[in-house]
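Q: My labmate handed me this sequence with no annotations at all. I'd like to see what the chain might look like in three dimensions before we decide whether it's worth expressing. Could you predict it?
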Amino acid sequence: MDRKVAIVGYKQTKYLEQNENPRERMVMNLVQSLLQDMKITRDDIGTFILSCSDFQDGRTISECFMIPWVGAYMKDVSKVDSDSANAVLYAMMRILSGNYETALVVSWAMGGSEFRSPRVMDFELDPIYERQAKLVNEITAAALQAQAYMAKSKLTEEQLAALAVKNLRNGARNPLALRKKADATAKDILSSRPLASPLRELHAYTPADGACAVLLASEEKARELTKNPVWIKGVGFCQDTYYLGERDLVKMDSLQKAAKTAYKMAGITDPAKKIGVSELHTTFVSQEPIFAEALGLIPKNAGPNAVSKGALEIEGKTPINPSGGPQAANPLMVSGLIRIAEACTQLRGEAGEHQVKKTPRLALAHGQIGMAAQHNVVFVLGN
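A: Here is what I predict for the chain of 383 residues:
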């Protein structure tokens, strides 16, 4: 990139099963708090990118109702109706165009109190075969993916449960998380409500109400706004076919291609050595080793060994989701932005109890959307 872009500020709400405020008040409070922390006003924002879903909000052109509440009235505003990591990509592109010096990305969801993801996700399916048969959905697609990986890598149900225990324990360290269980055991996971074999309730994401805001700036503006900018070193994105029967759910071609582009831009040839921490958008814990392998963070089929040796723990060699990930809180649409914000907190050493043992120089943040992670976007961030 000829022009550098940095993340200069970020703010999250606490993630709740039911927020006491309506989405408008929740988002207004969040943005006001971020601007106050940055000692700027809405007049300092060049463009606003809102990431939300009409399905989720239950109203058409849903972002229009939120424009005044984010302070974007009479300002340049655009919408990304996808996982919010894509909104950061769009905001970065706008700054790279030279037309804007700053961009504020805001995403919100009422996934705990108002909206249930699986019912709407069914509309992403192939309408002729998959949707009509009513056998494939968000959960069963993930279960098929999990079964395929477990058969190939020999990952056991006990090791899969250990991944869930790790994330629940990490979530207990995160003051913003909804699901917290510091004393979780494999028995707790394996006795939780069955979803679709081998997945159970505690393997899955936690629906939540919440919002996140991230402020981006050009290099010149970034140095004015903060002493600790987090630079976007590389980014890549790729979308696979939406028909599950045509995809290798374990190989994850789209994620591999997105990562390859991001690594090339960042000048990384050995991600396993260079990436100090990763925040992955894993809607089910079974995706953690699948994504880690596709991203080159661990060797192929090395998931069982990585779990057994504790490599993916906060204190491990390859820490993944020290925040607890979507198992701790997953406000639909917001999760990609959360991954980016959490990666920034790690790079700045601001993560508190869930800070990795050595403050990293490079972090990876990942967003995805679609059945079994059809579309992926990968950011390499550096301090």
